[in-house]
């Protein structure tokens, strides 16, 4: 009887191994990015939802931890050399956060770079992107009043 109990106990102890992490859930693991969102700061976010209120709009988001790098790229013939930002998404927070969106915020993306849009036109393009439902990553600038003053869409291809 004692041997059976020892065998069962050994099976139980050794059957527990390290759990493998699903690559899809790896992007949504615990993230330290919430600590980086302070006044006068820059942070990254995804899963944006526009919250329209009477006086002002706000953005509900999940912050992301992203490493950036800059690479020099050129055409096949070596001409048209330019710099390109590279982004490595480390993790995305599980926690929703909300910050006010300043009425005169600026928006930039490579998609609208060659369009002749007014500030309001660029803002409307940003609102349309949020409502598209596609997961995209953005860089946000905060001012001293913790309002979002600038938004840049990241090219994560």
Write structural notes for this entry:
- This protein has one domain.
- It contains three helices and five strands, in the order H-H-E-E-E-H-E-E.
- The protein has a five-stranded mixed β-barrel with strand order 1-2-3-5-4.
- The protein is globular, with a radius of gyration of 22 Å.
- The relative contact order is 0.20.
- About 4% of the residues have low confidence.
Question: What can be said about this structure in brief?
Answer:
The chain has 157 residues and is an alpha+beta fold. The protein has helices spanning 2-15, 23-26, 119-131; strands at residues 42-52, 57-73, 82-108, 138-142, 148-153. Strands 1-2-3-5-4 form a 5-stranded mixed β-barrel.
Layout of helices and strands, plus pairs?
Blueprint lengths: L1 H14 L7 H4 L15 E11 L4 E17 L8 E27 L10 H13 L6 E5 L5 E6 L4
Parallel strand pairs: 3-5
Antiparallel strand pairs: 1-2, 1-4, 2-3, 4-5
Protein name: Lipoprotein
Q: What is the straight-line distance between the termini?
A: 62 Å
Structural class, please? alpha+beta
Number of strands: 5
- What oligomeric state do the depicted chains represent? single chain
Give the DSSP E fraction (strand runs of 2 or more residues): 35-45%
The helix tally amounts to 3
Helix content: 10-25%
Determine Rg (CA atoms, Å).
22 Å
The total number of structural domains is: 1
Principal-axes geometry comes out as globular
What strand order characterises the main sheet?
1-2-3-5-4
The pLDDT mean sits at 80
Q: What summary fits the major beta sheet?
A: 5 strands, mixed, barrel
